[in-house]
Write a structure and sequence with these properties.
Strand content of chain A: 25-35%
Organism (chains A, B): Larkinella punicea
Structural class of chain A: alpha+beta
Order of helices and strands of chain A: HEEEHEEHEHEHHEEH
Number of helices of chain A: 7
Largest sheet of chain A: 6 strands, mixed
Protein name (chains A, B): NUDIX domain-containing protein
Pfam family, one (chains A, B): WHD_NrtR
Distance between the termini of chain A: 59 Å
CATH architecture of the largest domain in chain A: Alpha-Beta Complex
CATH topology of the largest domain in chain A: Nucleoside Triphosphate Pyrophosphohydrolase
Oligomer: homodimer
Shape of chain A: elongated
Largest interface: A-B, 37 and 36 residues
Number of strands of chain A: 9
Radius of gyration of chain A: 20 Å
Chain lengths: 228, 228
DNA sequence: GCAAAAGTGTTTGGGCTACACCCATGA
DNA sequence: TCATGGGTGTAGCCCAAACACTTTTGC
């Protein structure tokens, strides 16, 4: 190894994931109690391994907890305050992910002690994990305003009222249902199914699903996505 | 140190800066030829030191090259492909910054071999620095479309036509001057000065400066910032 | 038949776009 | 006086916001 490299200090590199889910009513974050820190809730995290990229590591860690693959995963921010971990200096790269709660629900408490918390009712968190969550919420709002990522939080089939409730929860407000559905449908990203939701309301709402082809393209383009 | 930490591999952590500048005509990036890599241009970068945060490190490195402080500096992305640096595994946190070219111009070539390159005419770059620049341009466009960060690239006093040229350069297009100035002025972020620019045009354009108070607040809020 | 949620239509105002003319000045 | 860039005004259009009524169905 060259001198220039030898003189430098190496640091531990961790990954932490802010995992968002939506249960039909409010926006939730998945927290765990890990290892030595029995008393404090924290984000799901782990260490970067020699053979993997940051993104691969984040996906691996997410898989360990949830058993899910093919999940929406986006790098949030690298946190590197010298004293963020009081034991040993660690740089943590935070990722945020959006998961469909229904897809796995059961798995999460098998190995880990994990629980969903409403974003408006979070417990004290380990290290700077609270900052990470705050930033992730901000980013989610920012991003969901222009990109149709909200679908990632719902099951394959969902109704427009469900989608509206999700947006209501994310922005902590109440959108106008008429303008909302007009706006959403005008994107042409949704395919109306023949099936109606049963049990929830008398009338029943039509199910929709995402047009995956169009969705892939739209993800990269600008869309102003918040109606009234 | 606890076992959990001991078993983990540490890595070198670097910082790289995409430094944008505007010379009145086109958008530029500042590149250097560093150390051993005499033959390849690269971004300005350095190693994370034990006592500093990521942001402090990025600011320090930027200061070393340009002598500037109080510069617009924003974390772009952490790059961690296992083989991005072929010699030793390194995680690099990239920052992008916007500097006022006029403020220092002279200093940059004293210690380092540095040069401004048009973003449309970049040389081959070291490692994954090309990806970093691409991402930074994308982010700059994305961000400048909604936040008034364009001012960071101009001197304290600037004219509306100068600002329009900057936006033209960033988006590689030509905005309509009437709509552009209406839009910019409607934000009320600019203070018109009594002074006119001399020498460039016959008539001379009025200088403006940023209303710092309002600007600080606006930075955090949504503004749709691109006219025709 | 009534309660509760789903679904749809209209009007209005503001902002964006497109476009054209006058102004100030140095040469 | 003329050439060059600076500065402003307007009409049309589209989109977003505000708002109310009808439909469906389980009880």
């Amino acid at each position: 190894m060259l001198d220039q490299y030898k003189q430098q200090h190496p640091y531990l590199v961790a990954l932490d994931s802010i995992i968002f889910g939506f249960d039909g009513e409010s926006l939730k974050v998945l927290l765990v109690k890990r290892g030595m820190e029995e008393r404090t809730w924290s984000l799901m995290g782990g260490w970067l391994q020699p053979v993997e990229s940051l993104e691969q590591a984040a996906a691996r860690i997410l898989f360990d907890l949830t058993g899910l693959t093919n999940v929406y995963l986006e790098q949030l921010h690298a946190f590197g305050d010298p004293h963020r971990d009081p034991i040993v200096r660690t740089v943590s790269v935070a990722y945020f992910s959006l998961v469909k709660v229904a897809d796995y629900e059961s798995k999460i408490t098998e190995t880990y002690q994990a629980r969903w918390f409403s974003i408006y009712n979070l417990p004290p968190l380990l290290f700077d994990h609270g900052d990470m969550v705050d930033l992730a919420i901000k980013r989610l709002r920012y991003k969901a305003a222009q990109h149709p990522i909200g679908f990632e939080l719902l099951p394959e089939k969902f109704t427009i009222p469900q989608l509206k409730k999700l947006y209501d929860a994310v922005y902590n407000t109440e959108f106008d249902k008429r303008n909302f559905s007009r706006k959403i449908l005008s994107t042409n990203l949704l395919i109306k199914l023949d099936e109606k939701q049963k049990g929830f309301s008398r009338k029943g709402a039509y199910y929709y699903q995402v047009d995956q082809t169009k969705y892939q393209q739209a993800t990269d383009s600008f869309l102003n996505f918040i109606p009234t």
